[in-house]
Each structure stands twice: as C-alpha cells, then as structure tokens.
TrEMBL record, chain A:
Pfam families from the UniProt entry: CheR, CheR_N
Organism, as annotated: Flavobacterium agri
GO molecular function: S-adenosylmethionine-dependent methyltransferase activity
Ranges where the CheR-type methyltransferase domain occurs: 1-247
InterPro entries on file: Bact_Chemotaxis_MeTrfase (IPR050903), CheR_C (IPR022642), CheR_MeTrfase (IPR000780), CheR_N (IPR022641), SAM-dependent_MTases_sf (IPR029063)
Name of this protein: Protein-glutamate O-methyltransferase CheR
Any one biological process term the GO annotation gives: methylation
Lineage: Bacteria, Pseudomonadati, Bacteroidota, Flavobacteriia, Flavobacteriales
Automatic annotation (TrEMBL), chain B:
Name recorded for this polypeptide: protein-glutamate methylesterase
CheB-type methylesterase domain mapped to chain residues: 3-189
Lineage, uppermost ranks: Bacteria, Pseudomonadati, Bacteroidota, Flavobacteriia, Flavobacteriales
Gene3D superfamilies registered for this protein in UniProt: Methylesterase CheB, C-terminal domain
CDD domains per UniProt: CheB
Length: 269, 189
C-alpha cells in the first residue's frame, strides 16, 4: 500500500508537471489504483514509479487511464434504461430539440445505448448527444463505435431487459470479432475532452447522464461536479446518476425532485 | 458524534454456502454493538434487494443501505451491493468502485478486506465463511500484516471448504470456529 504522504506527493507532482488535479479524488480509490498499477507494472519502489510518471508523458497517460477506471457496458443496469425509455424520453419528446450530455462517457457504450433508444422513440432527428471524458483515448474508441463482438450477447440481453423490442444485431455489422455500430448513430454525437474538475459548463442540456464517475470523487469534488451539472441543465431538465450515487446532502439537492426511487432527478427551480 | 466514531470494524466475507451460515448467525446478534458490521458475499447481479431483505428479516440489528459515500455508524449492518467493489476511507466513509472484477468477483472479498486493513489496521476483525473459490485469502493476510484479527469458519463445518481452507493456508488465523460459535464471538468483541 502506497502511504498517504506518497500519494500527496504524486498528486502534487502530477499537478505541477501535467496540470491535472487529482486532489479531489476518493483517497481509498486513488490509493488502490496506484498500488495496483505499481504492482502490475512491477515497480519495486515508489520513487521509481514517481520518476517514471514525471519523465515520461506516455506513462503518465497510462496512469490517468488506470486511475480513472473506464469499465462500462451497453444498457448497464437495464432497469435504469427502462425508466428513461418509458417516462423520461416521452416527456422530452415534447421539446423542439433535445440536447443530452454524457459526462464521463468512457468508450461510449452508454452513448450508443441512448442513441438506439432515441431512434426507437423516433426522436433521433431532433436530438444531439454530447459525450465527454477526461481521457482522450477512450473518446477515440467512442468515436469509432466499434466494440468487441463477444460482448454483444450480454448487451443484447441488457437491451431486451431495458424494454428493447428490435433485433439488437440489426444495429451493428459484425466483422473480425468486432461489432461496428451504424454511422447514423455516430453522426448525432459530438465528442470532446472535458475535465469535470477544471472545465466549465459549455452548453444547456435537457438531460445529463453522469454515471459511475462521481464514485471516484470525494464529497467536495462531487459537490463541485453537481453544481456544474446544475448550471448546465435547462429548467425541468433531468440529471441521471449511477445506481449507487446520489445528490443527497449536496448543495443542489433542494432544487431537484427525485423520480420515484430511481437515480434520476428533475430540476424544478 | 464521538460515540459514533468507528473505532472497530467487523467484516464478514463468504461465497457459496455462506448465506446459510449467516441465516444462523444473524438472529443471535446483540443490538447496540459498538462497531459496524460489513457483509460481503458473492452473488449474482441484481438480486440486491432480496439479499438485503433476507438479512434484515433475520436480525434486529439495523441493516443500512450502502450508497457511495455512506458514513458508517456503530451498531449497524452494511451489505456490499452487487456489481461494485467497496472501499473504506479513513474517516469511516464507504466508497464504491466499479472497476474490473477481482478473482472473477465484484464485489471481491479481497478488495474489501485489503481496503479495511489499509484504513483501519489493527481495528479490523474479519470473519471468512464457506465458499468455493480463494477470494478473501489475500485480504486476510493483509489484515493480519496490519495487525488485525482473522476468524475463519472451520472448513470441516463449512458447506464449501475451499475458501476457508485457502485462507488458512495463507495466514495463521486467530480463531477457527464452528458455525454455532460465530454469533457469540461477535457479541463478545
Ligand atoms: C466507470 S466509467 C463510467 C462510464 C459510463 N458512464 C458508465 O456508467 O458505464 C468512468 C469514466 O469517468 C471518466 N472520468 C474520471 N474522472 C473524470 C473527470 N475528472 N472528468 C471527466 N471524466 C472523468 C473516466 O475517464 C471514465 O471513462
């Protein structure tokens, strides 16, 4: 286990050398990721690790990737997507234009899931999906819309559980072990690097999804990110978080109304 | 606030065959225990509620929902939600993590045990129950290294002996107990 002083040192050096501020990340999680990375890459001492991070930007990139956990799925938590499909999208349908922000979109599985639902609700023509992440590498994958074919069985089951009625395999073409999702989806997406720690609000949205990102932040940084979402949401817009995340105890709570017991909140003030 | 500060932490980990043990142990737990109990079981995704309900049905000790950044209080039970790892901050806050599986499991017992060892050192008492893989063994040795206490269900009394046996091969447990003794051991902590 890397000790606290070492982690603080690393955080300071990284900020100084690369301008990324990880001081608001959950200590437990940050510490575990760093220990794991040092172990996987066979570092014997923290000093060696630190000097590599400092001197090799390529290695720093690897560190960011490891810290920011990009595990994701299509239609992750089907019950959540079912609620979007049956209650939230029909409400957004009354708007002339629908802007959605996926903050911390990782490799894009969540964004393509949304695009499929929008198309099935006949809303694609008036929707635009903004997908952002701190990590430029995952955005490259997301832009391509190419995912491992072996995952499709699970994704198609998730899709069905979310209330999907079509043949899921009709949405992609399979080739050499990969599934490439149709470009008509990608055309409705805008990808950009955006850091929830340091970057600002950049547009107004009707729906913001930020799922399984806030769990890596401490309370204070969570609050900062939630305020950023609040600034970026239109009145009566929706904020959706991961199944174990909440706006409870945050400074924006009083302006929001939770949708049933789902992790979806409506901005009412 | 003072009396609610977490000074001791009891962990219970298990896999196949451990639910039966818990059903046996839970009704005998005293209320008002001076520490939180965190339970981490391997299970399939999405049967969250049933496990929490099942456990709440069997004990008078309050079972609290675990969300990200939930603050533990003494005398309550916390069940690690499916599909997340659970980590501990030093101030007794729970942090969830959705990173890759460990030992083919999420939650992984090793992850919970190791994180508790790092955050709470000698104040950790871990109980490892029946199970058919080796998850938990590394965690036990990390807890031991940091001065904590290891209690393991006697493999002979466990429905699945592989998990407790693997841990016993890695660390010298402080106690090896039968299913019937577990509740009274916890009540006496
Ligand atoms: C576990 S993934 C979540 C992916 C998807 N939203 C889901 O729920 O499946 C977390 C993502 O958050 C991104 N992330 C972490 N810190 C960030 C930050 N400060 N700003 C923006 N994105 C961040 C990571 O790069 C990673 O892709």
């Amino acid at each position: 286990m890397t000790d606290e002083r070492e982690l603080d040192l690393l955080i300071n050096e990284v900020y100084e050398y690369y301008g990324y501020d990880f001081s608001g990340y959950s200590q437990a999680s940050f510490g575990r990721r760093i220990s794991r990375l040092m172990e996987v890459d066979g570092f014997k001492s923290f000093a060696d690790f630190l000097s590599k991070v400092r001197s090799e930007p390529e290695y720093f990139k690897r560190m960011v990737e490891e810290i920011t956990v990009n595990v994701t799925e299509m239609f992750r938590d089907p019950a959540f997507y079912r609620v979007l499909r049956t209650t939230i999208l029909p409400e957004l349908a009354t708007k002339p234009f629908i802007r959605i922000w996926h903050a911390g979109c990782s490799t894009g599985e969540e964004v393509y899931s949304m695009a499929i639902m929008l198309e099935e609700a006949n809303l694609m023509h008036k929707a635009l999906l903004y997908a952002t992440d701190i990590n430029p590498q995952v955005l490259e994958t997301a832009k391509k819309g190419i995912f491992p074919l072996r995952m499709m069985k699970e994704y198609s089951e998730n899709y069905v559980h979310s209330g999907g009625k079509n043949d899921f395999s009709g949405y992609y073409t399979a080739n050499y072990g990969f599934a490439k999702f149709n470009e008509r989806f990608t055309e409705k997406m805008v990808f950009a690097q955006h850091n929830l720690v340091s970057d600002r609000s950049f547009n107004e949205f009707d729906l913001i999804l930020c799922r399984n990102v806030l769990i890596y932040f401490d309370k204070q940084l969570q609050d900062h990110a939630l305020s950023l979402f609040d600034e970026s949401l239109a009145n009566l817009g929706y904020l959706a978080l991961g199944t174990k995340e909440s706006i409870k105890f945050s400074s924006i709570q009083k302006k929001y109304q939770q949708h049933d017991r789902d992790k979806i909140w409506k901005k009412i003030k | 606030m003072e009396e609610n500060q977490v000074k001791k932490l009891v962990l219970i980990g298990g896999s196949a065959g451990s639910l039966e043990v818990l059903m046996h142990v839970l009704p005998e737990l005293s209320t008002g225990l001076a520490f939180p109990i965190v339970i981490v079981l391997h299970r399939k995704h999405s049967d969250d509620l049933t496990l929490e309900e099942l456990i709440a049905m069997k004990t008078l000790v309050p079972v609290k929902e675990v969300e990200d950044k939930t603050v533990m209080t003494n005398g309550a039970i916390y069940i690690v939600p499916s599909d997340y790892h659970l980590l501990f901050e030093k101030d007794g806050t729970l942090a969830l993590d959705a990173s890759e599986k460990v030992n083919y499991s999420r939650p992984s017992i090793d992850v919970v045990f190791e994180s508790a060892a790092d955050a709470f050192g000698p104040s950790v008492i871990a109980i490892l129950l029946s199970g058919s893989n080796a998850d938990g063994a590394f965690g036990c040795s990390r807890i031991k290294e940091n001065g904590g206490t290891i209690i393991i269900q006697d493999p002979k009394s466990a429905g699945m002996s592989y998990m407790p046996s693997s841990a016993i091969q890695m660390v010298e447990p402080d106690m090896v107990v039968d299913m019937d003794e577990i509740a009274s051991v916890i009540n006496r902590i």
